[in-house]
Amino acid sequence: MTLKIQQPKGLTYKILVAMGLGLVFGVLLNYLQGVPWIQSLVVDTILYAGGKIFIASLKLMVVPLVFVSLVCGTASLDDIARLGRVGGKTLFLYMFTTGVAVSLALIFASIIEPGAGFNLTADTAFKAKEAPPVIETLLDIFPTNPFQSLAEAKMLQIIFFSGFLGVALALSGDSGKRILAIFNDLNKVVMKMIMMIMIIAPVGVFCLISKVFAEQGISAILPLGKYFVAVLLVLLLHVLITYVGLIKFVARLSPWEFFRNFKDVPIFAFSTASSGATLPVTMETVERRLGVDNSIASFTLPLGATINMDGTAVMQGVATVFIAQAYGQPLGIAAMLTVVLTATLASVGTAAVPGVGLITLAMVLKQVNLPVEGIGLIIGVDRLLDMTRTAVNVTGDAAVTVVVAKSEKLFDQKIFDGDQSY
Ligand code: ASP
Q1: pLDDT higher for 130 or 157?
Q2: What pLDDT is stored for residue 127 in this prediction?
Q3: pLDDT in tens, 52-83
Q4: DSSP at 223
Q5: In angstroms, what is the span from residue 161 Cα to ligand 1's centroid?
Q6: If you measure from the C-alpha of residue 39 to the centroid of ligand 1, how many angstroms do you get, rounded to a whole number?
Q7: CB-based contacts of 386: which residues, under 8 Å, 6+ apart?
């Protein structure tokens, strides 16, 4: 099903300008830190409120969108066997890409040696929060009360319940058709609401970016320059090798067209540092600009935002090597394999919100007996890396979605090629 609702004209351009202005304004504010009202009025009140309202309005749409869209999506799948097949392919590709991401991170971090020369002993005071065990994340898929799942925005439970409801609608004859018609109408209304929120996106992005740079200051990056650059480099390589490879050789599509159509989404992800908050934009773009059918995108994207975090896995791989080197405890091959496995599972358990990747990093470090306090070293530069890795996280979800949609022939080449006239 394709929607005719138009995205605000020139949105990408406006958001990019907002980002640029936000960066300049934020750096300026950082210089003026000494002036008391700058921090309390501008940073902590105006920019804080602007950013919060923007993120809240995006998050507001996540539950209604996933619920309504996934009911429509599963109800329109022609056979149940397809549901299983799509699920299997998607899970495999999500795990595979995450495994590749960590492996790239370990290889390149071992070459770059970001932690060489630190000579630390475990004394930095950082107390890591406990990450949830992976089995809890898996058991959490099965809800007992769908209203509670919706109220608490439990994504995997919502996916389970909406999929179940969609299948039941498809099997319920005329009654199912009548209810489905209502869901299809609701879907259009929800999409319209998302479009309306996009109109304020440049202001929201400006507030978020200015606040980060007002608080961050570029100087925080310098002592950890090698770590910072190593994470960025591996993120870039992962996009160029893994995603471009998947799109070009598996889906047999043009990576150029993919990124041209998709570019707004990483920008949103970068600004919000949350795959969850970006989800409405991801779903809208993947369906309306990349030509993926709603029956695929409505399932793979909410799932991806929850369990597929390649960017986070890259950071965890590089951070593990960095901490190992900084504390003079090099990782052997067995430890590296443990890191690949744990970081892949940890990315499943990483919630799609800012900064969670650091918490699950504790789980990875513990597995290979590295000092968890090492996280204290990298926390200062984490916000900027969080923004970047979130952009990669959402790109990975879309790349896999396109591959799955193409293989299931639930993909519209004309839309992908740029014909959005219908
Ligand atoms: N902020 C990331 C996301 O929402 C998760 C993380 O790496 O902390 O995708």
Answers
A1: 157
A2: 54
A3: 999 999 889 999 998 998 899 888 877 778 88
A4: G
A5: 25
A6: 26
A7: 273, 354, 355, 357
Q: What would the pLDDT profile of 134-168 be if each residue is shown by its tens digit?
A: 677 677 789 999 999 999 988 889 989 999 999 99
pLDDT at 181 over 90: yes
pLDDT for residue 206:
94
Residues 6+ positions from 332 with CB-CB distance below 8 Å? none
CA of 270 to the centre of ligand 1 (A): 10
In the reported structure, the alpha carbon of residue 393 is separated from the centroid of ligand 1 by a whole-number distance in angstroms of 8
CA of 274 from ligand 1 middle (Å) equals 6
Q: CB count, 10 Å around CB of 21?
A: 15
Q: Is residue 210 part of a domain?
A: yes
Q: Is the CB of 318 under 6 A from ligand 1?
A: no
Closest ligand 1 atom number to CA of residue 305: 9
Contact between 180 and 85 (Cβ < 8 Å): no
Q: Provide the phi-psi class of 292: left if phi over 0, else alpha when psi is between -120 and 50, else beta.
A: beta
Please compute, for residue 219, the number of CA atoms within 13 A of its CA located in the half-sphere on the CB side.
Answer: 5
Please check whether residue 342 is in contact with residue 369, taking contact to mean a CB–CB distance below 8 angstroms: no
Residue ranges of the alpha helices (H) in 368-381? 375-378
CA angle 343, 348, 353 (to 5 degrees): 100
Domain assignment present for 207: yes
Token duo for residue 146: 């769908």
The residue count for the chain: 422
Instruction: Write out the residue range of the structural domain in which residue 131 sits.
Output: 11-417
Which CATH number covers residue 143?
1.10.3860.10
Q: Is the CB of 103 within 6 Å of ligand 1?
A: no
CB of 389 closer than 6 angstroms to any ligand 1 atom: yes
Give bridge partners of residue 155 from the DSSP assignment. Answer: none
Distance CA(15)–CA(9), nearest Å, equals 11
The answer, yes or no, to whether residue 3 has pLDDT greater than 70, is no
Whether residue 227 is contained in a domain is answered as: yes
> What is the pTM assigned to this prediction?
0.87
Question: Which ligand 1 atom lies nearest to the CA of residue 311?
Answer: 7
Please count the structural domains in the chain: 1
Predicted confidence (pLDDT) per residue in 341-395, tens digit? 988 887 776 667 777 888 888 888 988 889 888 888 888 788 889 999 999 999 9
Q: Please, what is the angle between helix 333-349 and helix 310-326, to 10°?
A: 140
Nearest in space to 49 (alpha carbons), one of 206, 199, 196, 197: 206
**Residue 244 falls inside a structural domain:** yes
